[in-house]
Design goal:
With about 350 residues, the chain is of the alpha/beta class. The chain has a domain of about 230 residues: Rossmann fold, CATH 3.40.50. The longest helix is centred in the N-terminal third of the chain and has 21 residues. Bound molecules: ligand G4F.
């Protein structure tokens, strides 16, 4: 006799964020029941999942939202006991590295203590879910080797990196000591048109599109020499799911393996909207201008410099390729093009 297969239940903290929203898209498309934890705020910040919320076939049928804050472990406990998810993707938290120097305590509470609280709650569940913990390349800080892999020592250089290192170590401890199925995804920067406007890639893409449409004011940026391993968030979401769908839990670096500077990202984004940039000057006096017209589009503003900057973060994802069959196909140049063109489209609406 044909038995009705129970829909897999997914719970996502941070569902309204960039990568949480891509995970929601992925699991809804696979027919899963998706639950998301959202903050009760006076203004709605649901734009990234609005296409799901606005669909009556999805919202309330396949997608359910629950109110809680990361410091409200009683409510998180209640949600976990009520929803009994098969998989939990824990992505929520203050994710801006620069801001973590301004608000280190709340960054640590949201990123470190809240992750520990979630692990503790899961330990009490009769059937704990498989857990994805969103770790970060920031745990490597000033790394002792490049590219970094799962065995590279943690040497965080920022409050955010310290908090992520704590949470990552805790997740490993709960895996070993309590047998929880927990995976740390040590993710490098992952970007998309859904990226928040505080992040450098979004700032650059938005300004490139605006300059192509005739805006005059300069884009102000911090350290143009900073290098990052930038990948494409929807691809990274697939790596996260692959970790929880593997037979056994483990930690994985999720990265493209290519490093680019902020300057190179800007060159690619502007080129994608038809502007050939060149840079001249150095340090705080460096500017980016349009070749031909000489119009200055980018200036350095020391306000955006960070007290400490990880030097060269680039990841080696060969373990993810070997075990999960995952590899990134889009690197910084492709991401810059996708983001700048998406900004052109959205600014023309
Ligand atoms: O875009 P960012 O702010 O990203 P950051 O600090 O690397 O952090 C992101 O990636 C991490 C790794 O995956 C995550 F853990 C974290 O949650 C977040 O998603 O800055 C990238 C680089 C930095 O070196 C920064 O100094 O760009 C440099 N930068 C230069 N000018 C700027 C600016 N960053 C920002 N946000 N704004 C600027 O004007």
């Amino acid at each position: 006799m044909h038995e009705n297969k129970r829909q897999k239940k997914i719970l996502i903290t941070g569902i309204t964020g960039q990568t949480g929203s891509y995970l929601a898209d992925l699991f809804i498309s696979e027919g899963c029941e998706v639950h998301g934890i959202v903050r009760r705020a006076s203004s709605f910040n649901r734009s990234r999942i609005e296409h799901l919320r606005a669909n009556p076939e999805i919202y309330g049928k396949k997608l359910f939202l629950h109110y809680s804050d990361l410091d409200d472990s009683t409510t998180i406990r209640r949600i976990l006991f009520k929803t009994e998810p098969d998989e939990l993707y824990h992505l929520a938290g203050q994710s801006h590295v620069g801001l973590s120097f301004e608000i280190p305590e709340s960054t640590c509470q949201e990123t470190a203590s809240a992750t520990l609280a979630i692990l503790e709650i899961c330990r009490d569940l009769k059937n704990p879910p498989r857990i994805y913990h969103a770790s970060s390349s920031e745990v490597f800080g000033s790394p002792s080797e490049s590219p970094q892999k799962e065995t590279t020592a943690f040497r965080p250089a920022t409050p955010y990196g310290c908090a992520k290192a704590f949470a990552t170590n805790m997740a490993s401890v709960y895996r070993r000591a309590h047998g929880l199925f927990v995976c740390n995804g040590i993710a490098y920067n992952h970007e998309s048109p859904r990226r928040g406007e505080n992040f450098v890639t979004c700032k650059i893409a938005a300004a490139a599109a605006a300059h192509a449409r005739g805006r005059r004011e300069c884009l102000e940026l911090g350290n143009l020499n900073a290098e990052r391993d930038w990948g494409y968030a929807p691809e990274f979401a697939r790596a996260m799911a692959a970790m929880l769908h593997h037979d056994s839990p483990d930690d994985y670096v999720i990265a493209t393996g290519h490093s680019s500077s902020v300057r190179e990202f800007a060159l690619a984004a502007y080129r994608a909207v038809g502007i050939e940039l060149a840079f001249e000057g150095s340090g705080h006096a460096e500017v980016g201008f349009e070749m031909g017209s000489g119009k200055v589009f980018i200036r350095v503003n020391p306000h955006f410099y960070r007290p400490v900057e990880p030097t060269r973060l680039v990841g080696d994802s060969s373990k993810a390729l070997e075990i999960l069959g995952w590899r990134a196909s889009i690197t910084a140049k492709g991401v810059a093009e996708i983001m700048a063109r998406a900004e052109m489209d959205s600014q023309s609406r």
